[in-house]
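Human: Here is a favour to ask of a fellow structure person. Comparing notes only helps if you start from a blank page. I am asking you to supply a protein in sequence and structure-token form. Write it directly below this note and I will take it from there.

Assistant:
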Amino acid sequence: MQPLWIPVIYAVLIVMFSLSASFKFLRTRSMVRHWTEYRYPVWGMYGIAALEAVGVAILISAFWMPSNATYAAVLFAVLMVGAIHAHLFRAKHKPAMAVNAVLMLVLSVILLIT
């Protein structure tokens, strides 16, 4: 049986990436503004949102097939490395803007090593 904190990490990642994908798909003002600051094409926002949604679906399936958590964690880790890069290097945001991405990266890495 897995420790209680594993499903808690699943839940946090599912909620955070579901919200993120929703904000991108709905073209919220803040998301469009950030995407413009990153200097990425708008269609890329939908691509990233789709990848986030796929990761959420894979992670939900990990409640029944625990090995799927590895796939979701790898996908989320790659996305968060990209998000950190976008915040710090493309948009030149202050480091505080990347804190959420760093936290999601840490949770993803924890899933990978457990």
